[in-house]
Amino acid sequence: MKFSIKRSAFIQGINMVSRAISSKTTIPILTGLKLSASNEGLILTGSNADVSIETVIDRNDADNELIIEEEGSIVLPARFFSGIVKKLPSDKMTLSVANGFQTEITSGTSSFTINGLDAADYPHLPEIENDNEISLSGDVFKEIINQTVIAVSNQESRPILTGVHFVLKDGTLFAVATDSHRLSQRKVALPDNQGEYDVIIPGSSLSELSKMISDDTENVKMKITENQVLFTIGNTYFYSRLLEGTYPDTSRLIPKESETNVQFDAYELLGAIERASLLSHESRNNVVKLTIKANVKQVTISGNSPDVGNVEEEVESKEVAGNDLEISFNPDYMKDALRAFGHSMINVSFTSSLRPFTLVPSEDAENFIELITPVRTF
């Protein structure tokens, strides 16, 4: 195996697949990066058994300056190899494998030799033979991930809640996540009927996928089989296992009616919560209180720490309706929820001081909802 390539193009590919490589894997060869040179170009693969990423550097793309002199495959230690490539002196580099698995990397006046592993021992990527493919624009899919993955559970005691539940039915893609303390739900209408699915994708996989979707990503394509999902972004393929089990029915968690409703600018409310949480984080229970006096249309955020002090701030609300209310909540949950709304106007609806409350955008309220369970303080 021998090829030469523009180093910047190679680094871009290495960075992409390195997202799937972990030094803590129980399968030693998965700490390596697999390289395969063929007629198509250079194929880079990284995997940690749960997630696998494969990217193709096209030999026909002149920007890559890829010349393959001899085809072949090798697995190289990912951490050392990527470190070497990033430190090479010239923008052009050559890699050749000889004497079994001994790999020579040259660039300018620099030359490294490292020992590789047999690519035949590297686990095969899953075969996904499903013709049904969901296609979404990159910015929409990234938004769906970022708005829902914040609510997945970090507790392995209920593994099903560590994923996002995706349901595709009647031309609507429905995504929901909950950790039993909060919930985030998003709906998107697809342009045409793209089949029916009901799957749970690990939140950790989706977080990595989101980082790979850039501003110039036109489309993300998704294919699903019994226990795997494949996302295609240009020349990069992202495989993830699916979680097994039945996701709880989350529709019953969302209140149908409310007693108190307030409209806020999400960004302004986020600022007030951040300031209040500066003190609440010093307290053992980490709670912020929201006090609503509907008759005078006054909303106050307060937080305190017995050791440090307290904070109180009146928050501008665009509209207040219903009953007076005092409610306490975890400010970190509230901050995560508010960041998902950006600078938009939101409606916050409360039932009582002990029942979950909801946040929805003032426009397009049907398609995005966040729910937070309050904290009992007495």
UniProtKB/TrEMBL annotation:
GO cellular component terms, A-Z:
cytoplasm; DNA polymerase III complex
Q: Where is the signal peptide?
A: none
Q: What is any one GO biological process for this UniProt entry? A: DNA strand elongation involved in DNA replication
Matching entries from Gene3D superfamilies are given as:
3.70.10.10, DNA Polymerase III, subunit A, domain 2 (3.10.150.10)
Q: Which Pfam families match?
A: DNA_pol3_beta, DNA_pol3_beta_2, DNA_pol3_beta_3
Which residues does the UniProt record annotate as the domain DNA polymerase III beta sliding clamp central?
136-249
DNA polymerase III beta sliding clamp C-terminal domain residues = 252-375
The record's section on InterPro entries has: DNA_clamp_sf (IPR046938), DNA_polIII_beta (IPR001001), DNA_polIII_beta_C (IPR022635), DNA_polIII_beta_cen (IPR022637), DNA_polIII_beta_N (IPR022634)
Localization per record: Cytoplasm
Q: Which SMART domains match?
A: POL3Bc
Any GO MF annotation of the entry: DNA binding
Keyword Nucleotidyltransferase found: yes
Keywords attached to this Swiss-Prot or TrEMBL record, sorted alphabetically, are: Cytoplasm, DNA replication, DNA-binding, DNA-directed DNA polymerase, Nucleotidyltransferase, Transferase
**DNA polymerase III beta sliding clamp N-terminal domain residues:** 1-126
User: To which protein family does this belong?
Assistant: Belongs to the beta sliding clamp family.
Q: Which NCBIfam families match?
A: dnan
* Stated role: Confers DNA tethering and processivity to DNA polymerases and other proteins. Acts as a clamp, forming a ring around DNA (a reaction catalyzed by the clamp-loading complex) which diffuses in an ATP-independent manner freely and bidirectionally along dsDNA. Initially characterized for its ability to contact the catalytic subunit of DNA polymerase III (Pol III), a complex, multichain enzyme responsible for most of the replicative synthesis in bacteria; Pol III exhibits 3'-5' exonuclease proofreading activity.
Assembly mode? Forms a ring-shaped head-to-tail homodimer around DNA.
Entries under PANTHER family matching the protein: BETA SLIDING CLAMP, DNA POLYMERASE III SUBUNIT BETA
Q: Would you tell me the protein name for this molecule? A: Beta sliding clamp
Which species is listed as the source?
Answer: Apilactobacillus kunkeei
What lineage is on file? Answer: Bacteria, Bacillati, Bacillota, Bacilli, Lactobacillales
